[in-house]
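## Example record

The block below lists the input lines for one assembly entry, exactly as stored, with component labels intact.
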Amino acid sequence: MSSSPLASATSGKRVLSGPAIAGLALAALLAVALPAFTTGYVIYIANLLLVFVVLCLGLHVVIGENGQFSMAHAAFYGIGIYASALANRAVDLPYPFAMLFGALVAGIVGLFIGALALRMRDIYLALATFAFGEAMQWVFANWDSVTNGPNGLRISPARFGPLEILSDKQAYPFVLFFCLLMIGVTVAISRSRLGRSFRAVRESEVAAMAMGIDVRRTRVVAFGLSAAIAGFAGGMFGLFQTFIHPDSLGFQTTILVLTMVVVGGLGSIAGAIGGAIVFGLISEVLRQAPQYQEIIYGGILILFMMYAPRGLFVFIGDRIREVRHGR
Amino acid sequence: MADLLEIDAVCASYGRIQALSEVSLKVPQGAIVALLGSNGAGKSTTLNTVSRLVPVTAGQIRFAGEAIQSWPSHKVVSAGILQVPEGREVFRDMSVRENLDMGAYRRNDAAGIRRDLERVFEYFPKLQERLQQKAGTLSGGEQQMLLIGRALMAGPRLLLLDEPSLGLSPLLVQQIFAIIERLNREGLTILLVEQNAAIALGCSSYAYILENGEVALEGPSEHLRRDDSVRRTYLGG
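Predicted structure tokens for the full assembly:
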């Protein structure tokens, strides 16, 4: 009762619980120390996981915070990859500028999609964004003069002044840094006035309107920010990848990201991060048996919907509590 | 006293169905005005035209002398018109505290917000006890208190109350209305939509009765309470 209204202006809902913070700290320590004791392949996987963490944060903003469905995040991700790769090639500036450009282009497209999304809800919005995602993949595959079409685009190495990044190991600290930066950005958004308005709209549009929230603007902004974060993830991809092919920017990727966010726990930042890591590792293991991959994804998603609809972490937390209370 | 809110021959429709036809009413500064009528008579629609959730097809709405019928809803809130929507529209997954914070969404004056929070706790001590609890887990009466408290956090000049008695026990209805009357005594102007005509006529100074989207009858609440046709139709005897 002692917290002042002043403090409350900045405190959104509690984003991270105690155990989650401890877990994250441990993970961060491991993450920093990783290059010291692993091979190049593991580092490559770690880079990819960190990119997926950011992609999941992007999806979290629009689905988890704002409650709008998007099946187009592979497209925003792709826009970020292509836009930052092309910007990196076109101008001789440090790579972060290319990343920002990628985020900006994806964000602008996201605002546009968000404006169209105003007229739609639920399954209709899912279908419309799905159609947009498919259309974008087609654009990536056929806009030869810009994306080099079905041959894929070579991504030139990222440069930071005199430093040119040529290996996964070299890229790793940067990828980790940008991932942590985006976690910080997402937490800041979530705790801001804007973040509160996102959640208010998610919970009740009528009540949000009655509180003086511009619901339409809020929904469009959520879509734009979400797409910009996904586009930024695309720029991170270009830090360590040398090549992008449209095939990897299709519906499968969207479903993968969606699964990560749902498995982790819809509506929580820790859930989005944890989901990306846990499910990213699962999908890496499944690479040994590609023919069963889709079935196993589907199975996991169904199991989670049935037994842990609020996600892995809430599920584990509840079990721990049950044990503690001697059930 | 001057009229804080004037609704002048307002029409509104949902698609091709006309919901309001030339409804006119006035809410004087400092009064409680009641809007009565049966289900579907257009009571909530009238409130929704004022809070700009429903578009006005003809007529004028003036608040403190300014025409507001083409404003967006968030501007109306900034001007000090706060609606308590019907149907327990709390933010269910947010705590009581966060719900109250949302009420002050459009304000920047920290000192004023703090003062209003203290006031809300004074009116509704229950809310202070349940500050960290999720709003969705509150009882019906507590949710209604939270709705009013949340609206008060916006520092309203005019409160639009939509069916505050809905689904509450008689005892809770009494409590809620005691607070509504107290708010009014302390200077808040209120436009009250109610199905419970007895209690609404009891606390208001003037009332309008809507039928099929038109004002069928209006007058000082005291007179309406004694009017035979009103007694038969709305007061059950």
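The longest helix of chain A spans residues 40-65. Chain A has one domain: 14-324.
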